[in-house]
Amino acid sequence: EAQVTQNPRYLITVTGKKLTVTCSQNMNHEYMSWYRQDPGLGLRQIYYSMNVEVTDKGDVPEGYKVSRKEKRNFPLILESPSPNQTSLYFCASRDGTAHNQPQHFGDGTRLSIL
Amino acid sequence: GDSVTQMEGPVTLSEEACLTINCTYTATGYPSLFWYVQYPGEGLQLLLKATKADDKGSNKGFEATYRKETTSFHLEKGSVQVSDSAVYFCALTAAGGTSYGKLTFGQGTILTVHP
Question: How confident is the model over B36-64, as a mean pLDDT?
Answer without folding.
Answer: 94
